[in-house]
Design a protein that fits this description.
The complex is a heterodimer of chains A (about 110) and B (about 120).
Chain A lengths: L8 E4 L5 E6 L12 E5 L6 E4 L13 E6 L2 E6 L8 E9 L5 E4 L3 E5 L1
Parallel strand pairs in A: 1-9
Antiparallel strand pairs in A: 2-6, 3-4, 3-7, 5-6, 7-8, 7-9
Chain B lengths: L2 E5 L3 E2 L5 E8 L7 E7 L5 E8 L4 E3 L7 E6 L4 E6 L8 E7 L10 E2 L3 E5 L2
Parallel strand pairs in B: 2-11
Antiparallel strand pairs in B: 1-3, 3-8, 4-5, 4-9, 5-6, 7-8, 9-10, 9-11
Classes of the chains: A mainly beta (about 110), B mainly beta (about 120).
């Protein structure tokens, strides 16, 4: 069981908006640590989608955005496209038990 | 651009040591942090540990007693050793660049390599 909780799957039609939640606790997201989001396309390595306070690496479209509130974070994707179909992971730092970088279990996005 | 490639045995026997190497191409291994991350079947991602290019290391407390990560700057490679493996260590093992701080992401990943622990 991962330290950060994500829904196993979400689905939405092309052109629509979808959000993926990432729920943590007072020792990670709630402690103020940044949340990062990764996209893993089928058969590919994960890549950074959103870093920290809604920073998008070069090449990531502004259809992707991140937000954080309390001990939770969310990834929003607008104008869904077929090639957005992928696994999405959140990641943060946890300061309990000696400290460790932690991930969510991932959310499979299906574009209907 | 910088690329990472994992290599090593895909099958390890229980109680033996898992050994993997990550080769960094297209850039220098110096002045960066380099991590190993794994994903067990049906489970999420787990950070194993990192090594800095000077050799300083930090490990996941849950694996610390069994993990060793080292760096060879002359070969632009870093390596993972995980001792006393069990079936629970079966996973896709990936190398990644980072994190440079508690607030930083893993900004570059290898494709990952499946390691199965079985007799």
């Amino acid at each position: 069981q991962s330290v950060l909780t994500q829904p196993p799957s979400v689905s939405e039609a092309p052109g629509q908006r979808v959000t993926i939640s990432c729920t943590g606790s007072s020792s990670n997201i709630g402690a103020g640590y940044d949340v990062h989001w990764y996209q893993q396309l089928p058969g590919r390595a994960p890549k950074v989608l959103i870093s920290g306070k809604n920073n998008r690496p070069s090449g990531v479209p502004d259809r992707f955005s991140g937000s954080k509130s309390g001990s939770s974070a969310s990834l929003a994707i607008t104008g869904l496209q077929a090639d957005d179909e992928a696994d999405y992971y959140c990641q943060s730092y946890d300061n309990s038990l000696g400290g460790s970088w932690v991930f969510g279990e991932g959310t499979k996005l299906t574009v209907l | 651009q910088v690329q990472l490639q994992e290599s090593g045995p895909g099958l390890v026997k229980p109680s033996e040591t898992l050994s993997l190497t990550c080769s960094v191409s297209g850039g220098s291994i110096r002045s960066y942090y380099w991590s190993w991350i794994r994903q067990s079947p049906g489970k999420g991602l787990e950070w194993i540990g990192f090594v800095y290019s000077t050799g300083n290391t930090r490990y996941n407390p849950s694996l610390k007693s069994r993990v060793s990560i080292s760096v060879d700057t002359s070969k632009n490679q870093f390596s993972l050793q995980l001792t006393s493996v069990t079936a629970a260590d079966t996973a896709v093992y990936s190398c990644a660049r980072g994190p440079s701080s508690d607030w930083s992401p893993f900004d570059l990943w290898g494709q990952g390599t499946l390691v199965t622990v079985s007799s």
